[in-house]
TrEMBL record:
Binding site for [2Fe-2S] cluster: C82, C87, C123, C127
Species this protein is from: Caenispirillum salinarum AK4
UniProt similarity note: Belongs to the complex I 24 kDa subunit family.
Alphabetical keyword list: 2Fe-2S, Iron, Iron-sulfur, Metal-binding
MF GO annotations: 2 iron, 2 sulfur cluster binding; metal ion binding; oxidoreductase activity
Entry-linked InterPro entries: NADP_DH_HndA-like, NuoE-like, NuoE_N, Thioredoxin-like_sf
Annotated Pfam families: 2Fe-2S_thioredx
Alphabetical list of NCBIfam families matching this protein: PRK05988.1 (NF004638)
Protein name: NAD-dependent formate dehydrogenase gamma subunit
Cofactor list: [2Fe-2S] cluster
Domain of life, per lineage: Bacteria
SUPFAM superfamilies xref list: Thioredoxin-like (SSF52833)
Keyword Ion transport part of the UniProt annotation: no
Cofactor: record remark: Binds 1 [2Fe-2S] cluster.
Amino acid sequence: MAGTAPWSEDRARTIIADHRSLRGALLPILHALQEHFGCIDDAAVPLVAAELNLSRAEVHGVVSFYHDFRRTRPGRHVVKVCRAEACQSMGAERLLDHARRRLSAAPGETTADGAFTLEAVYCLGNCALSPAVMIDDRLHGRVTPARFDALTRQEEPA
């Protein structure tokens, strides 16, 4: 999974500089930082704010508003369970409850071994094959609890 580099202020400054001239640079900078480091490190907020002439509160507000931005590193695998209407109608809440039990982690949490981060999301765009789950960047449809177990078992370390 992308985003495994350890925090580096120098690298963060380079990423910020590389994206600073883009229109609406804040979001592209935040996405690039998360892509590289796996999260938006607290130390990045003042760097971004200073470079874009924004307050720290403005940058923090954007990071905390958008659910795709993380403040802590995710597990080695990110499991997203769709909770949108189509998936709900096909058992997504039961599937999410199963995922909580299987992984021993609530949405937004990472398993104790660091293998999985569980996220509840609203629409993966796979409504015709609901309920849908995305593991890392791979989308899966018609996921039953048994299929969920098989998919996550494939991703576990040997």
